[in-house]
Amino acid sequence: MGRVRATNQDDFGAGDDLFVLADGMGGHRGGEVASAEAVAGVLGSFDERTRVGLARAVDRANQAVFGRAAGDVDLFGMGTTLCALALVRSEGGDVLAVANVGDSRVYRYGQGRLTQVSDDHSLVADLVRAGDLTEEEAARHPQRNILTRALGIESALSVDTWELPVRADDRYLLCSDGLFNEIDDDRIAALLAGPNNPELTAASLVRAAVDAGGHDNVTALVVDVDAAPSAQEPWSLPDVKVEQSSEGAARAARRWEGPLEQPFLSMLARLGRRRR
Ligand code: MN
User: Fold this and answer.
1) How far is the CA of 88 from the centre of ligand 1 (A)?
2) Fold designation for 10-271
3) Which H or E element spans position 96?
């Protein structure tokens, strides 16, 4: 929960070689409902073990969150980030698929190096990519909560996905922004290099972020790769991620009426700008 918030709007879950994390937003109980619905949605609808199948499961989760937000005045305007990691089939054999929407993150730690796999969909991440902010400034920026993409806001959703080689002894971290806004990459890498037990490692990451301030909910999900296919490819982050537009993109986007929280107004304004 951290030191400041009165509720925990983060959620996470695991299935059969499938790991999901979400960070919800919205007034009343909206944030908690959105993240729980999104995690359950992916766990419950991942029925095709491919990269595309993972993106489709995220799309279905978006439809579930969106539908629930539209049908309940207390939940109206809720949304959530979501990131997921799964073992999937590819042409060349088993690979890891990563999916992301929003500003929760997926990192890979292997051979002593930490690599951020996912790209944040947030206002501050856009500013960092444009060279207008440093990572350190972004972590303290008053508008760091403004997302440019989230589940539950529109029927249409674009999901980033990657395929990564499976390497034995690699460690993956899925985390909410409450972790990386409190402790930097060097600290995260040092803690991931710690105990072999992923549960203890996750607990130490959360403890470090809470001790460093705990301004937000903090969630860390640590996944160890125990075994890999015999042919070991060197690990590298693919140059190109796939951005898959949802099945929902074909449906007419719903018009928003009534009051929305400021972050969502800003987010929708940005989405509107992009569409022009
Ligand atoms: Mn958060």
Assistant:
1) 28
2) Phosphatase 2c; domain 1 (3.60.40)
3) strand 93-101
Q: Which amino acid is at 58?
A: V
Domains in the chain: boundaries: 10-271
pLDDT at 65 exceeding the cut of 90? yes
User: 216 CA to middle of ligand 1, Å?
Assistant: 6
Integer Cα distance of 244 and 263 in angstroms: 24
CA of 164 to the centre of ligand 1 (A): 26
CA atoms within 13 A on the CB side of 216: 23
Q: Which two tokens stand for residue 22?
A: 């979400």
What SS3 state is found at 70?
helix
Q: Give the C-alpha separation, 48 to 170, whole Å.
A: 24
Summarize pLDDT for 29-64 with one digit per residue, the tens: 899 999 999 999 999 999 999 999 999 999 999 999
User: What distance in Å separates the CA atoms of residue 126 and residue 205, rounded to the nearest whole number?
Assistant: 26
Distance 231 CA to ligand 1 centre (A): 38
CA of 55 to the centre of ligand 1 (A): 22
Q: Compute the distance from residue 113 Cα to the ligand 1 centre, in Å.
A: 25
pLDDT in tens, 76-113: 999 999 999 999 999 889 999 999 999 999 999 999 99
Query: Separation of 23 CA from ligand 1 center, angstroms?
Result: 6
Ligand 1 mean position, distance from CA 90 (Å): 33
